């Protein structure tokens, strides 16, 4: 079954507790928390405290997506999180970062910007829990899925299968009922959406539609 991650970037922050509850009841599998520093991406999203609140307010796994330049500086802040996604473009020594994430008891996920070739992560595939394929340029919710990314997901899936690696593919950006099936057919194990979940009037209906679009 495909996992659905709800990115809280489009949630109503004045009512976060309710929003999380609604998404949880609607059947999402995990929460995705976008952390931005205004350097790695041209935006600032939310503080570390919000991620900690989310973790306290839900029993579902929480994935923190670090869109920050200095990954090393922040890892220790996320001790309670289930998954920590870091960008390969931001780190010089990925093995060191992966070790640090493992040491605090979280699972490491490596993220790739759309134009970053999958070859960049070939030698760390045995060390990570997942690969987060960005299907928009990171920084904002509500952008359009970049179609050529379907090919990238497919290539990554082959690389994983051929190498016999045990790695999940997460897809993030522009996911909706039209693009989700494309990502899943290409090999995605998990899809992440902000606007297609929290941006909709009826969260329950939105999650149901997403789930149906990928065949349940
Ligand atoms: C983009 C973030 C995404 C974003 C997705 O920088 O990493 O997680 O929240 O938003 P949608 O689903 O609206 O494209
Ligand atoms: Zn994200």
TrEMBL record:
InterPro entries: Aldolase_TIM, Ribul_P_3_epim, Ribul_P_3_epim-like, RibuloseP-bd_barrel
Record function comment: Catalyzes the reversible epimerization of D-ribulose 5-phosphate to D-xylulose 5-phosphate.
Pfam families hit by this protein: Ribul_P_3_epim (PF00834)
Free-text remark on how the cofactor is bound: Binds 1 divalent metal cation per subunit.
Keyword Isomerase belongs to the record: yes
Gene Ontology cellular component annotations, sorted alphabetically: cytoplasm
Family according to the record: Belongs to the ribulose-phosphate 3-epimerase family.
Protein name: Ribulose-phosphate 3-epimerase
Reaction equations catalysed: D-ribulose 5-phosphate = D-xylulose 5-phosphate
Signal peptide boundaries: none
Cofactor(s) demanded: a divalent metal cation; Zn(2+); Fe(2+); Co(2+)
């Amino acid at each position: 079954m495909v996992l659905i991650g709800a990115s809280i970037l489009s949630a109503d922050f004045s009512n976060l507790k309710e929003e999380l509850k609604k998404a949880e009841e609607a059947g999402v599998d995990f929460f995705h928390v976008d952390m931005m520093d205004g350097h790695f991406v041209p935006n600032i999203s939310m503080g570390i405290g919000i991620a900690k609140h989310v973790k306290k307010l839900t029993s579902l796994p929480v994935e923190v997506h670090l869109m920050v330049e200095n990954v090393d500086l922040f890892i220790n802040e996320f001790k309670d999180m289930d998954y920590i996604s870091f960008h390969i473009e931001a780190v010089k020594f990925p093995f060191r970062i992966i070790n640090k994430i493992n040491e605090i008891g979280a699972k490491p996920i490596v993220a790739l910007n759309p134009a970053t070739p999958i070859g960049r992560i070939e030698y760390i595939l045995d060390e990570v829990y997942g690969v987060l394929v960005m299907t928009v340029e990171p920084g904002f919710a509500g952008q359009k899925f970049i179609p050529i990314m379907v090919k990238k997901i497919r290539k990554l899936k082959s690389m994983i299968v051929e190498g016999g690696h045990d790695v999940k593919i997460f897809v993030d950006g522009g996911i909706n009922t039209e693009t989700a099936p494309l990502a899943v057919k290409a090999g995605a194990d998990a899809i992440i959406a902000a606007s297609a979940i929290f941006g909709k009037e009826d969260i329950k209906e939105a999650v149901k539609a997403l789930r149906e679009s990928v065949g349940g």
